[in-house]
Amino acid sequence: MKRYPSKGFTIIELLVVVSIIALLVGILLPAIGKARQGAMQTQSVSNIRQVGTTLSTYSSEYNDKHVTFVVDNLGAYGNSGAEAFANYATQTGSEHPKMWLGIDDGVLWYYVPPEETNVPFNFETRFGVFRLPNAMILADYMNGKFYDPVYYAPKDSAVIAAAEEDFDYPSSFPGFDTESVFYSSYCLSPAAMFNPAVFSKAGAQDVYFTDPYAMDGGFKAPTLGQVQYPDLKTWVCEHHWLQNRRFECNDHFGAGQGTYNGCEPYYFNQSILSNPVTLFMDMHTGTLGVQGAMDSSKRVVTQTGDAHHGLWSIDVYPGSSYEEYGGGGYYSAQGFDWSNTSFHILTIDGIRGRDVVSGVH
Question: What integer pLDDT is reported at residue 272 of this predicted model?
């Protein structure tokens, strides 16, 4: 009987093929993952540039003023938010204009209390309108929706998981959901929204902060013409640690107690690994690493010989130090590692200041 050679594969041949496939997968998967991460960062750059265009458009229509959501002379009405807003209503005969989030079924919706959200930054709660670049007065320059995907960075998974069900809601804001307002992935620089004197040297004192309620013009909207370092002053940045992230939810805020379905993400300044996508005031975009921001502040301290004069104010409650880690500032104590910076948030000289020195970012 004539025998024909087998047309099948031997076990050794199959093992060789499987090994080659496994090797190729091992090579390609990291490259695919890296490409995907790069695409999401590119989308975030596009988003943040659109937010900046909105801010510029607003400013051009309001005599070069930066948006603040608060009357210029609020500080003249009281020594605290609650007192100032109450006295404003009494003395003017009407409530202070609210920070509207949107319209649903003919009803205007806003977020309360006004003393916390109308002001750019509440120095006790560390919250404010700087977290809401998608409020109606700005969203109307975009697509008119609070929950527009452009306000949410693709890597901000916890936030998107909480907010995405409202992305397709037909009205500008789902009024039924005011108990759970899911903030944008991007935040404005609150320091740039105050009168620059708030974050400037206070007279002869070696202090770089004055309570805006102690100044009649503390809340006066600055103009974009006051910017002195447009390529070094941040305007908008990712609020959470998204680039080079190792962990998402920060249990220092309380496990299961976060804003987004029990998760409170790490903030952009809470790890030296963080490298948030950032829009600068000359409208260029890039990333600004926390380590670079920390090094910049320390370099300025060395140059000025003033322990308080870095690039962000260590004199704002609850205080901090450029050299000590986890001391205060904008939730530095809740950080992942030894990061300690409040750039973008507490910039010395406000809109006239800078958040990084040339050549660092």
Answer: 95
